[in-house]
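Course exercise 7: structure representation. Students receive a sequence record and must write out the corresponding structure in token form. The form below is the worked example handed out in class, using Anti-sigma factor antagonist (100 residues). Read each field label carefully; the graders check that inputs and outputs are placed in the correct fields and that the protein name is recorded exactly as given.

STUDENT ID: A-19
EXERCISE PROTEIN: Anti-sigma factor antagonist
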Amino acid sequence: MTTPLTLTPSRRPDGATLLTVVGEIDMSNTGSLATAIETTEGPLVIDLTAVEYLDSAGLSVLFTHTDRIELIASPLLAPILNISGLADLTTVHGLDTPES
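STUDENT ANSWER:
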């Protein structure tokens, strides 16, 4: 069963705009993600640590905004962000994964 996408905007203690994303990002809900990013002015930190699934449609939305976003990612998403090349285009925090 798909986990619904929840988008929660807020401010970090340093004043930066934060968008916390929870659930699954796929082609059925990327419009909501794109709108949330596009309606936020200035630099944006996107917290993806509670994202359970991210498909190519979701990556496409993130790629469109690499000039103004930073990402916080869990070890689950690290391979996707690295292999796709997204980690080379924007700052991604949390890419260090424990040694297996």
